[in-house]
Each structure stands twice: as structure tokens, then as C-alpha cells.
Specification:
Order of helices and strands: HHEHEE
Radius of gyration: 13 Å
Helix content: 25-40%
Strand content: 5-15%
Distance between the termini: 29 Å
Mean pLDDT: 92
Structural class: alpha+beta
Strand order of the largest sheet: 1-3-2
């Protein structure tokens, strides 16, 4: 019931969205930003306990999941959640 759309979630069957989500989390962060730009994404919402946040074998060292684990995400991802939910929300700032 919001103006927001979802690209992928664990229950989705949208193959293209799931593929982009896997690439976003596991490819180099510059490629991840390209996915966000191509899809017009302004918010990234993650649930850290989900297995997907561990990354896949061979995830890039500068991938979202690896940088998230090291608390070293780039400055263009600005945390916006209140810290009172299991969900973590990042705003994608313009280039």
C-alpha cells in the first residue's frame, strides 16, 4: 500500500528481479550501483539475518554483502532506518 515497488524477495518468482538481486549483493559494488541506476532504485532494504546476506561462494570482496559485514559500505548508501526493526534501510544518493 505504498508507492514503492519490490525488485526481489525470498518468495518471488520474478527471475529477472531475483537475478538482479543476487548480482547486486554479490558482484563488485560499482556493478551493484549500476543495477540500482538501471532500475531507478532509491532505497535498499535488507534483513541481515537472512541467509542471502552471507553472500554466495565467490562473492566479490567489494560486494554489498562483504562490505556490509565489514560495516564499510560506500558513502552513497546512507542508512535511514530508525534502528528499531530487524530491517535495515539505505537511501541511494545520486551520483
Amino acid at each position: 500500500f505504498t508507492a514503492h515497488a519490490v525488485v526481489a524477495a525470498p518468495y518471488h518468482r520474478n527471475q529477472e528481479g531475483i537475478g538482479d538481486a543476487l548480482a547486486f549483493f554479490n558482484k563488485p559494488i560499482d556493478e551493484a550501483r549500476g543495477i540500482l541506476a538501471a532500475r531507478g532504485i532509491g532505497l535498499v532494504v535488507v534483513c541481515p539475518p537472512l541467509p542471502e546476506m552471507q553472500g554466495i561462494a565467490g562473492a566479490a570482496e567489494d560486494s554489498f554483502v562483504r562490505l556490509f559485514a565489514r560495516e564499510a559500505l560506500p558513502a552513497w548508501l546512507v542508512r535511514r532506518d530508525a534502528g528499531t526493526s530487524p530491517l535495515v534501510v539505505y537511501e541511494v544518493t545520486p551520483r
